Amino acid sequence: MTTSPAAAREIDALVIGSGQAGLATSYWLSRAGVDHLLLEQRAQLGGAWQDRWDSFYLNTPNFAFLLPGMTYDGPEPDAFLPRDEVIELFREYARRIDAPVQLGTEVTRVARADGGFAIETNGGSWLARNVVLANGAYQRPRVPPSAANIPAHIIQLHSHDYRNPAQLPDGAVLVVGTGQSGGQITEDLLAAGREVHLSVSACPEAPRRYRGQDTFYWLLEVNLHGPDYGINGLQLAQLPSHAARFMCNPLVSGNDGGHSIRLRDLGRQGVQLHGHYEGTDDGVITFSDDLAARIALTESAFGQRMQVMLDAYIAAAGIKAPGAEPVPAVDWQPSSSGARLDLGAEGITSIIWSTGYGLDFGFLDIAVLDEWNYPRHSRGVTEVPGLYAVGLPWLTKHASSTVAAVGMDAEYVAAHLAAR
Q1: Residues 210, 218: Cα–Cα separation, whole Å
Q2: What domains appear along the chain, each with residue ranges and CATH number?
Q3: 295-324 confidence digits (pLDDT tens)
């Protein structure tokens, strides 16, 4: 490989990102003897967990902390870790595996060069034979374009920037989106005595526990062992479309020992529920006029697909598990709030957009992304020799981006890279 006039440093592999995907990849690259470096734009280790609000708890139980070379071995495997402990665990993991991380380094361009890659950063240039994209799926907060039409005196935050209710001015709060962030932030606001309006999306509700185990226990089992029993619903090849890679996770929380979040329960507690956010005009928000049907849809989704798959796995694997818990009774109905909400009339002074994230590979000057901005790949090996991806949703299976399963994809990618 030829060194450029700018005296770019040379290395076998650069890993972009030092969250769980980057660190797991580093573990396997070190074991394979590959000279590598992790480039991290943040000033501190801890990945995207540092962007969560103050009261956040990990949604997956402690037993699912399964990074290669370090798993949870504490006294509470079924409990849930608070945000700061999660961050510290990742920092401890980086120390334990002696991960070579360069902090405060933003990658601005990756391009093909001389059989490898030329990488530009705010700290200089590199020439690498291999590059691993491990910057994750939580990089670019998504906010609908119509948010620009919200009156200027209304405070707007994405869930990425929300930390606690004290950030917000007095008055009611509109939370848009009922994925895990939207549901948990709504509960956080309720606990602070705030008046909350909630725009309902299509994310499914799910029981926190199912047939004697945390629901994630069964999901992880199906991810890892389902194919052994012919249960393939959580494998990449079974997705109905590429768009399904970005579908919502079940609406659950790790707070207060772990629990389900149910829209009807929030309604009973005084949250004003609305349909799907459609747009805004002159301080009036428009929602879809289908709230009752939308709530029913979120409630039925688990039973229609996930429950069937988990039951099939339990039966096929011959596992003795108690029967399914009864479905909660439908004992609360939303009032007809209409499809319009006047922010001023309702005293709403702030909006929190819990509307998810988009992938961000804006630095990638290589034609390898599909129409969803997702790298074209096979098991994390992209169609460009030497370019890899780890830690993205549904890279190979449903749990590919989780702490529980990212290490397996990282192992495969590292082995493929080392063989080059």
Answers
A1: 8
A2: 9-139+359-419 (3.50.50.60), 141-357 (no CATH)
A3: 999 999 999 999 999 999 999 999 999 999
